[in-house]
Amino acid sequence: MEDTVFNKILRKEIPSFCVYEDDKVYAFLDITQATKGHTLVIPKKQVTNIFEYDAQTAADLFSRIPKISRAMEKAFPDMEGLNIVNNNRELAYQSVFYSHVHLIPRYSKKDGFKMSFTDNSARYTPEDMEQIAHAIHKEVEK
């Protein structure tokens, strides 16, 4: 696996601003601070993206997110919302190829962070939706 900036942060070769750490997870401020308190949460077991997680690594990481999120809410009383973002692979805007989850506090619609989705519902009939759901369901059941 690639030696990334996050490996170097875990080895303390690069400084970071830690907000939470235990034996399975490390959470620290994102250097970009898209909004005040923007935090990254990484598993200490290196995986490149969500497609490499085993059940235990996923449980270790994702079970800590509510605790860290509640701490952020208490630390920033003016926080009105929180985006949880996980980008996987380059096309999905992953830039560091060590899996990480962004916790992005939201303070107002003008806080500098935006997400948007195109409504493509007109492109899909109910039959199309059924085929899509079936294809995914079939693979989940394996």
Automatic annotation (TrEMBL):
UniProt cross-references to PANTHER family, sorted A to Z: ADENOSINE 5'-MONOPHOSPHORAMIDASE HNT1 (PTHR46648:SF1), HIT FAMILY PROTEIN 1 (PTHR46648)
Catalytic site: 100
GO molecular-function term, one example from the UniProt record: catalytic activity
Coiled-coil spans in chain: none
InterPro entries for this protein: HINT, Histidine_triad_CS, Histidine_triad_HIT, HIT-like, HIT-like_sf
PROSITE patterns on file: HIT_1, HIT_2
The HIT domain, residue ranges: 5-114
BP-aspect Gene Ontology terms: nucleotide metabolic process
Protein name: HIT family protein
